[in-house]
Design a protein that fits this description.
alpha+beta; four-stranded antiparallel β-sheet; 381 residues; four-stranded mixed β-sheet; rod-shaped
Length: 381
């Protein structure tokens, strides 16, 4: 029976758990555990002594649990049988993917769907004893080559259930899944942490990177086309609304700029808005050659009363001169020709003037056949 003097695992592969190929040792053998490793002795279905990084000579005083199980006599270099597992304690990164489709009913559009998912996870072995016991308990033929099968069968099967639960609970449409990858990652990590802890594994990060949609499903493709048409229409309407707001804001800003420029001009030229407005009204009154009627003259003079002193003086001079000329003559309403006060017919076009009779005493309007003023009693005829 061959005895092996050195028990170790060189870091020449990326295996998380490695089982030493031999199981016959002597109490004089040496155990070498490298950094980020642990070595676990396993015998008769029990996890025995656990060793961290270091170099050990196997003697009865440093392998007490193994000694109790196998009953190695003290001081003897006797052979014994045991399994030795080397566990990598460094952070691991692993790709994952659902082995079959996830079936669910779309919570928004209410049609059945099948999707797949894949991503990446990061973890460390937190409890080597628990991990080995769980793995050996699940698979009696467990060895270093089938830990990936463990992840697929025991952990990732739950991912399918959890994804379907999240979609249903959060009412996430299949067309919104890609926008919810971060939510899926966070929620799945929270749900899976306890499942990993059950096997002595600490889950540090869990990412969902891709959701595979049923692009070959005709019903899905029809809904997809309708959804994107609706999305485009909503985007166009939102864009138009924003452009309208920008246009109105631009107009408002332009009006403010023009108003500020005009206010600056008035300050520089020494007049106010009220003076400018009144001046424009006065110009219109002065330009109206038909202002010969007394009623219009009254209105025009009344409107001029609010004009500022410097502008008012100029406008009043223009209007007063025009009315002074009109008082001594009659303007033909047909051809605008000026005629003397006693003219009955226009000297240019022959239009007959209708003269208005008024009481010389009180100014009351008189009828053509009046002899006495109906207001003051003065004789007028």
């Amino acid at each position: 029976m061959a005895l092996f003097d050195v028990i170790t695992k060189e870091k020449i592969d990326d295996k998380i758990i490695w089982k030493y190929p031999k199981n016959k040792f002597s109490t004089s053998s040496q155990l070498i555990v490298h950094e980020s490793q642990e070595a676990l002795f396993f015998s008769n279905g029990k996890a025995l002594d656990l060793f961290g990084p270091g170099k050990y000579t196997l003697q009865t005083d440093i392998i007490p649990l193994l000694n109790k199980i196998i009953q190695i006599p003290t001081g003897f270099k006797s052979p014994f049988r045991s399994e030795v597992y080397f566990i990598d304690k460094s952070e691991q990164t692993s790709r994952w993917g659902t082995s079959s489709k996830i079936q669910f009913l779309d919570p928004v559009y209410k049609f059945p769907l099948e999707i797949g998912a894949c991503g990446e996870m990061r973890f460390v072995i937190d409890d080597s004893r628990k991990l080995i016991l769980k793995l050996v308990g699940i698979n009696k033929n467990f060895d270093s080559t089938n830990i990936d099968d463990f992840f697929s069968s025991q952990i990732l099967m739950k991912v399918k259930t959890y994804i379907a639960q999240i979609i249903t609970t959060e009412k996430i449409s299949i067309f919104e899944l890609d926008q919810q990858l971060e939510k899926f990652s966070d929620e799945l990590q929270k749900k899976l942490e306890k499942d990993f802890e059950e096997f002595g594994i600490k889950l540090k990060k869990f990412f969902v990177t891709t959701i595979r949609k049923p692009e070959e499903d005709r019903q899905y493709l029809e809904f997809k086309e309708l959804y994107f048409k609706q999305t485009v229409a909503l985007a166009e309407a939102e864009l138009k609304q924003k452009l309208d707001i920008i246009e109105e804001d631009t107009k408002a800003q332009k009006a403010i700029i023009e108003s500020n420029a005009m206010a600056t001009k008035r300050r520089q030229e020494g007049y106010s808005y009220q003076e400018e407005h009144s001046y424009k009204i006065g110009e219109k009154v002065a330009e109206n050659e038909a202002m010969g009627q007394f009623t219009n003259m009254g209105v025009g003079l009344g409107m001029m009363s609010g004009i500022g002193s410097s502008v008012s003086e100029k406008v009043n001079n223009q209007v007063t001169g025009a009315f002074a000329t009109v008082e001594d003559s009659i303007i033909c309403p047909n051809c605008n020709t000026r005629n003397s006060q006693d003219t009955i017919f226009c000297k240019k076009c022959g239009t007959k003037f209708i003269k208005e009779r008024k009481c010389k005493s009180c100014g009351n309007k008189l009828d053509d056949d009046s002899i006495f003023c109906g207001k003051c009693g003065e004789r007028v005829g």
